[in-house]
Amino acid sequence: MKRFLLITLASLVALAGCHSFKKENVQPPTPLAKDFKPTVQVTRLWRTSVGDGAGTSGARLRPTVVDGVLYAASTDGKLVAIDAAGGKSLWSKSSRTHGWFGWGDKKRKDAQYAGGPAVSGDLLAVGTLDGHVYAVNAKDGTPRWDVEVSSEVLASPVIVGDLVVVRTGDGRVYALDAASGQRRWVYDQGTVPLLSLRGNGSLLAANGVLFFGSDDGKLVALRQDNGAKLWEQKLASGEGRTEIDRLNDADGAILLDGSTLYGAAYHGNLAAVDGPSGRPLWTHPFSSFESLAVSDHAVFGVNDESVVWAFDKNGGADMWKNDALKYRWLSGPAVQGNYVVVGDLEGYVHWLQTGDGALAARERLSKKAIRAQPLVVGDTVYVEDVEGRIGAYRLSSH
């Protein structure tokens, strides 16, 4: 089992919730401007909730939308399908058992879903905090198979071809047969840092290759058919005077735009890498533990102080930065039309203009932290907080 210190923003979020910032190493969040005037109108289409959400687990549970259906999970064993347009429940399954008669799903008793669901066709796969992967029918939630892996699954699986591929907290990648759950291959990172951020970015599958950011600050490419490593590229050097300074986890998801990969690492760099060869195209110093977002011309990121940045895609030059949300412990960004969307530690959702970073709109989903990167599908963005509340929002100009 991987031996490491789990560092998570959950502790910071908890402090923020009770407004306790007496410790010198915890910065208070920047207050929101009271005279803020939005320049774009936000319409909330619907809001619902899924169990207890991620709770205090530190997982970034994020829903997924496939063919007009939103799928979501929670650490207290809820798995749901919701009409993405209207928010109406299509089906809901609970793995919890209750009372003397043990109502619930005995095959998935008290499953602590944490990886977020992945869906392809009629197959839904999801991982758990106690090291299991469950596959169910996406049409109604009926069980198909389950397997045990070596450690917790904090990232969403990826379903590609006839494989379900998952990452575990001890540095392994498992490829499972999508029909049966049988193990096809395992990639073992080998030595993993004793000190690591809690969480893993989701795997990216493209052109027969799997890409991910590793716990030691590298961008890694594996063959999809057998798990053999094709190449790796450093996103962080791991240098520093203390163990904390040398912490260099690449905790966000890797992006692919055309044939170029984008990734970032804590205490490291934002990097653009040629996907087929692994050759670096450019790097820019940038410390982040969140996933990135990309538009036609820019790459957007949130650094480790929750300052929002935009970089030119071609060479990595700074385009703008906005520190109005500094220390509000933002989620990773998403791009919704001409706006960048982020959530913060107090349940606010913020829209910034992609062109200059100016704040354009603000809505409040809840009073709880939004840690998962918002999900944009078409003209709608879906946002989930740590207690499982999900809101759907659409923009329209004044």
Automatic annotation (TrEMBL):
It is found in: Cell outer membrane. Keywords: Cell outer membrane, Lipoprotein, Membrane, Palmitate, Signal. Residues 1-16 form the signal peptide. Its main location: membrane. It is a lipid-anchor. Residues 44-95, 112-322 form the Pyrrolo-quinoline quinone repeat domain. Part of the outer membrane protein assembly complex, which is involved in assembly and insertion of beta-barrel proteins into the outer membrane. Belongs to the BamB family. Part of the Bam complex. This is Outer membrane protein assembly factor BamB. It comes from Rhodanobacter soli. The lineage of its organism: Bacteria, Pseudomonadati, Pseudomonadota, Gammaproteobacteria, Lysobacterales.
